Amino acid sequence: GKIEFRNVSFTYDDTNINALKNVSFTIKKGDTVAILGKTGSGKSTILDLIARLYDVTDGEILVDDVPIKKLNLKNLRESIGAVPQDAFLFSDTIKENIKFGKENAAEEEVIKVAKNAVVHENIMGFSKQYETVLGERGITLSGGQKQRVSIARALLKDPEIYLFDDCLSAVDTETEEEILNNLEKASSNRTTLIVSHRVSSAKNADKVLVLEDGKILQEGTHDELNSSEGYYKELYFNQLSDKEN
Ligand code: ADP
Ligand code: MG
């Protein structure tokens, strides 16, 4: 679960966009790291490189001190629970959607992760509950419900590493906090990367990385970054005043 970036640069072949420029950081096993920054700053690219959807152009990524290229790709992917912003759900029951990735899961396990993802109450509100069919033949969930079902799916897999790519964007701040608290209790020993637009996701993280134009602009805890002038403090101030208005 330990993750290390050593002078990582990455250029997308097709567009020639240099998405990451000499990025270095270390995440201890079990730590939670929040990644913030404007659209296009390279947040998703960091997560995609950890899941090895692409290989670095320069530098090296190590997981548990082993270069990622030396790890068995299947094992690596199995140890990762990735939740994208646009959750992909099948035209199947809610239960089967959550169980995707762990087909043999017991009913109680499915309910437990749905509770931790704060979507159980919503599911129980449907007449067919966990047997409710989604998609073309069934009902359409709201964006926030989709995201929470997709989080439940990742929780059921119980991976060593969680990669949450802005997957709480359609969830209100209060529910977001509840999910993050549950996650902390249920998976405190799991390494977690949370890409977010909200400072609220970062407040309880062990470390915050602020990206700008493919580079690390700021790195530290919420308290550290909030006590010096910069992007993070400004963002915090703005989101705080949004909340009050
Ligand atoms: P963020 O997640 O912070 O919004 P991304 O990591 O998605 O940023 O993108 C970083 C840069 O790489 C952007 O300039 C984006 O346009 C570019 N980019 C992202 N994905 C691709 C891709 N699949 N192919 C080519 N360029 C990409
Ligand atoms: Mg992104």
- Provide the list of bound ligands, each named once: adenosine-5'-diphosphate, magnesium ion
The shape is globular
- Give the percentage of residues in beta strands: 15-25%
Give the structural class.
alpha/beta
Please, could you describe this protein's structure?
The protein is of the alpha/beta class and 245 residues long. It is built from 9 helices and 10 strands. The strands form 2 sheets. It has a 6-stranded mixed beta sheet, sandwiched between helices. Magnesium ion binds next to α1. Adenosine-5'-diphosphate binds next to α1.
Keywords for this entry:
245 residues; alpha/beta; six-stranded mixed β-sheet; four-stranded antiparallel β-sheet; 9 helices; globular; binds adenosine-5'-diphosphate; binds magnesium ion
Q: Could you outline the blueprint of secondary structure elements for this entry?
A:
Elements (H helix, E strand, L loop, with lengths): L2 E9 L6 E10 L4 E6 L5 H8 L7 E6 L2 E2 L5 H6 L1 E4 L10 H6 L7 H10 L3 H5 L18 H15 L3 E5 L7 H14 L4 E5 L11 E6 L2 E6 L1 H5 L4 H14 L1
Parallel strand pairs: 3-8, 3-9, 6-7, 7-8
Antiparallel strand pairs: 1-2, 1-4, 4-5, 9-10
The structure holds adenosine-5'-diphosphate and magnesium ion.
In brief:
With 245 residues, the chain is an alpha/beta fold. It contains nine helices and ten strands. Strand 1 and strand 2 form a beta hairpin.
